[in-house]
From TrEMBL, chain A:
Organism: Catenulispora subtropica
Protein name: Protocatechuate 3,4-dioxygenase subunit beta
Signal peptide start and end residues: none
Record keywords: Dioxygenase, Oxidoreductase
Similarity comment: family membership: Belongs to the intradiol ring-cleavage dioxygenase family.
InterPro entries: Intradiol_dOase_C, Intradiol_dOase_core, Intradiol_RC_Dioxygenase, PCDO_beta_N, Protocat_dOase_b
From TrEMBL, chain B:
Signal peptide range in chain numbering: none
Name of this chain's protein: Protocatechuate 3,4-dioxygenase subunit alpha
Source organism per UniProt: Catenulispora subtropica
UniProt cross-references to SUPFAM superfamilies, sorted A to Z: Aromatic compound dioxygenase
Stored InterPro entries: Intradiol_dOase_core (IPR015889), Intradiol_RC_Dioxygenase (IPR050770)
Amino acid sequence: MAGPDQTSVDAEIAEWRRRYEKHVADGGARAHHPDRAYAAYHSTALRHPTQPLVAVSDPEALELSGPVFGVTDVTDLDRDLTRQHAGEPLGERITVSGRVLDRDGRPVRGQLVEIWQANASGRYAHQRDQHPAPLDPNFSGVGRCLTDDQGAYSFTTVKPGAYPWRNHENAWRPAHIHFSLFGEAFTQRLVTQMYFPGDPLFPFDPILQSVTDDAARARLVAAYVHELSQPEFSLGYRWDIVLDGPGATWMEEGR
Amino acid sequence: MSVFPTPSQTVGPFYGYALPFPGGGEVVPVDHPDAVTLHGVVHDGAGAPVPDALLEFWTGGGAPGSLRRDPTSGRVLGRDGVTLTGFGRVPTDADGSYAVRVARPEPYVSVCVFARGLLHHLHTRVYLDPDAADAAFGSLPAARRATLVAIPERERVWRFDVHLQGPEETVFLEFR
């Protein structure tokens, strides 16, 4: 029996988009995050809760605080993914930088940013990645840094390649970098993916398209900023991140 | 609230070489006077174990130093066995199981669940005392409330399974 193909996935993507547009037209709230039940990403089927989430509004909730990170958790090497091995990785050298903010636009300071990505050929340094593209002995694809006092982060890396996956026949992920972020509160925790502008795979990818709101989806795409490119060295991308969820109420601007 | 948030995306299947760290489940040392071990299995809606979930635990009261890096090589060292960071992070094993050692919670441990196939992480809690869960979630049916309560197995060891979906689906939380 033939499995799902791109045509059937396209139809699922279009159906969820129709549903969302009707929801908004009927006066429903805009959705900033994907629906966990999003069907075109087939692995959601048995992995999303069907009961509504239970609301907690306790101002004393433990989740309004969160883990703390500091100088012992990262080194300067960690933010440069091109200098973690004896030689240089293959690929297009890039920098990715931006700011981490909360819903009020305040900088998230001193918090941990973790990234992981495929190499320039679209292969992860992970045992379970069986894509027959070459591994790069000079690239692990893992980085970490702490945000500074302005909430800024920066990584030097190589542009990851697109790669195939098994959601459906001829499924390809657009190039992306995985990001993991902590705010001042555990409620602000975020794991997401950053994409590169102008990627022709965007409309075919059910993971990106799971963000059915056009404006929200656009916030997952970095901007190429020529002023951030370094002559004879690297291309510069900018991506700002806004953490959702209630923050720590004691947090004052200018702390 | 004035700025729109960055959408969530799934952690995917390949976080395993990036996010877990040595001693990630040892939130307190084994000889901590109030140490308890929580362990269990993450299940999907068909009851099958989820071998590629990542669980994070937050108990509060933390100091920096969960990951710890060698300052000269950048290598991840993990826990130093002394600093109480309050933070745990463990991937599930091939059989969907996990284990974490925390200080006995007063009254709960906060848990964040990530997995391939989960587009947006889920928050839940582990209570050891059913009365504390009843006090916090009295409006929920008793069977639902019970999904937040760990089951004592033996001295200092408690069982807490996570069901992402299905008849035993865990109560997941949203914060306002």
